[in-house]
Design brief:
It is built from 9 helices and 14 strands. By secondary structure, the protein is of the alpha+beta class. The protein folds into 2 domains: about 5-170, no CATH class; about 175-205 and about 255-395, no CATH class. Helix 2 packs antiparallel against helix 3 (about 75-95). The protein binds zinc ion (ZN). Zinc ion binds near residues 327, 329, 343 and 345.
């Protein structure tokens, strides 16, 4: 049977000796990655390609030099893994799926190490890394699934200095749920995070408003500090800490929400917000909402795949807020401040719930005919429909 791969991430509290060993390993990983990238770049200027095996041979040679002998002091597994990651980065670059790989720096993306099975031991619920006599002190905040076996372990440290370990497992416990006849439309908004076609409204996490105010203040404070000063460093640290807290709280909330929605529904219809709308209008609240939305969508999609559910994304030009979900009449105008309205057919709508109901209906049409849904686009009102829908996404 084919198991799904699932990552479990936990906080980690290394001893001083372990922290030193890990920091040394991160440094060696960066060094090897950057050396190999430099070698490949140099070859690239001569129109030559260097492959993984060649960089692996280079690593062996580097370890024999006096200058780089310290690479022998850490586990070789993360060093080999970083060369594999570099190989993938180049494969993506040559396949035109990614930009040219860039060097790792201490500040950015440079604090992680990946171990495959030969680089760790997982026994009796204890994880021990190569070159370490003692197991790691991990906070098992949620249990690993019964029978889950880690195939890859990634240790990392974030900008705030917190340590994490992520275990990628083959998870035999995830099996498709029994079929459910339920379907739900999910509309995204600013005053409410989400509105469901059932009428349920999901608000932003409880602390988020306060956190946003704090973040804005910390960012203003950071902007005033002189470059390179100790105070600027402190201010930057504070911004990073608030960012991390917002992200943690949001992720927890979204996990609970997406698991529930996927359990309860067979079909989940969402609006296909494009990247183009998302980069427009980068206010702070927009940025956070957009991040929450894409995180929500990706969680929804992978969990739906685990459990045999379907996520349908409907074209965003669909005039979901102006269309009466009861009779199908399209209103000419629907200014943003109108939160409830009554159609000529006598139905009174909550704006967001009506939009979610329309999304659901559109999604069902897609599921039935397998085509994209743009029913109103070719009508005379099509142009204004587009404008109306654009303004709906602005605060
Ligand atoms: Zn109506």
């Amino acid at each position: 049977m084919n198991h799904v791969k699932r990552a479990f991430k936990y906080r980690l509290y290394p001893s001083d000796a372990q922290a030193a060993e890990l920091s040394r390993t991160f440094g060696c990983v960066r060094k090897v990655y950057n050396l190999a990238l430099a070698a490949r770049t140099e070859a690239w200027t001569r129109q030559e390609r260097v492959n993984y095996n060649q960089t692996s041979a280079m690593l062996t040679a580097w370890k024999k030099t006096e200058e780089l002998a310290y690479l022998n002091e850490v586990s070789s597994v993360p060093l080999q893994q970083t060369l594999r990651h570099l190989q993938t980065a180049f494969t993506n670059f040559f396949g035109k799926r990614a930009r040219y790989p860039h060097f790792k720096s201490r500040r950015k993306s440079g604090k992680s190490a990946e171990y495959t099975t030969s680089g760790f031991r997982f026994r009796d619920g204890k994880l021990t890394l190569a070159k370490m006599p003692e197991p790691l002190d991990i906070v098992w905040s949620r249990p690993l699934s019964e029978g889950a076996k880690p195939s890859t372990v990634t240790v990392s440290q974030d900008a705030v200095g917190r340590w994490f370990v992520s275990l990628l497992c083959d998870d035999p416990s995830v099996t498709p749920l029994g079929a459910s006849g339920n379907a739900v439309g999910i509309d995204v908004g600013l005053d409410h995070l989400l509105t469901l076609s059932t009428g349920e409204k999901v608000t932003n996490p409880r602390h988020e408003r306060k956190d946003r105010v704090r973040l804005a203040k910390a960012q203003r404070n950071l902007a005033k500090k002189t470059r390179g000063s100790a105070n600027r460093n402190k201010a930057r640290h504070r911004v990073a800490r608030i960012h991390a807290r917002i992200a943690d709280r949001r992720r927890d909330g979204l996990h609970k929400l997406t698991t529930r929605l996927v359990r309860e529904n067979q079909t989940l219809v969402i609006e296909d917000l494009t990247v183009r709308t998302m980069v427009k209008n980068r206010t702070l609240s927009r940025a956070i909402s957009d991040a929450a939305w894409s995180q929500f969508r990706s969680m929804l999609e992978y969990k739906a795949a685990w459990y045999g559910r379907e996520v349908i994304a409907v074209d965003r030009w669909f005039p979901s807020s102006r269309l009466c979900s009861a009779c199908g009449t399209v209103q000419d105008k629907m200014p943003l401040h109108v939160r409830t309205w009554t159609c000529d057919c006598g139905t009174t709508h909550d704006r967001d719930v009506n939009a979610a109901k329309n999304l659901l209906a559109a999604g069902r049409a897609v599921a039935a005919c397998g085509a994209g849904v743009r029913p109103q686009r070719s009508t005379p009102g099509g142009q204004s429909a587009m404008k109306q829908e654009v303004s709906r996404h602005e605060p």
